Amino acid sequence: MSHDWLAAFLIGVLGAGHCMGMCGGIAGLMSIGSISSSKLWLNPLFYNIGRLMSYSLIGGIVGAAISTIAQYSGVNSPLNWLRLISAIFMIVLALYIGQWWQGLLKIEKAGQHIWKYISPFGKRLLPIKHPLYAIPFGFVWGWLPCGLVYSMLTWSAASGNATQGALIMFFFGLGTLPLMLTIGLSTSKLNQWIKSMAFRRIGAAILLCYGVFQLYYGVVRVI
């Protein structure tokens, strides 16, 4: 397993609290109009399947697009510069997760302009009358403006191909999955543990060290 996949998974785990804050209200939307209360747990499951599908798709598209440009240009310098940029994003992300600096939120606001054109497609799927309808709903909401997602997409862009780009985004989404599946369970021990400041800052420190190492490695390759 690639170390980038493991790092992406760790970011997903550490950033799940942010994802839950942005998407927590969706749990209520998915329960409105459901035909069977005994199957309500299926809605969050299928919603998250759709969300991971959208992450993987955009990761694959970005990875393929950038690698194609690098291939036809005949030089690898674009990928080297993107690896450098992704390392910087990783450091910014670590600072955000550790709550040392909130600059990532400014990047997040940039996606609001696009989101207003995408969100109506998700709203048309409400109410969720069958659990399978939650898959396309989750797919649409996977495009919700998110600084964490944007940071991970820089990794996908520098990955070198569509498969690696898709897998980086998939493992990121997989890391967010445990906590996202507990939406609505306020007593969840997992929820409390992942949201604890000690856990976030220990993980953020590890990620920061990894980001600094990648930045150094990226600078060496560019030079």
UniProtKB/TrEMBL annotation:
Keyword Transmembrane helix: yes
Transmembrane segments: 6-32, 52-75, 81-101, 132-153, 165-186, 198-217
Annotated coiled-coil segments of the chain: none
Record keywords, A-Z: Membrane, Transmembrane, Transmembrane helix
Domain Urease accessory protein UreH-like transmembrane: residue ranges: 7-212
Keyword Nucleotidyltransferase: no
Pfam annotation, one family: DsbD_2
PANTHER family according to UniProt: HEAVY METAL TRANSPORTER (PTHR42208:SF1), HEAVY METAL TRANSPORTER-RELATED (PTHR42208)
Protein name: Cytochrome biogenesis protein
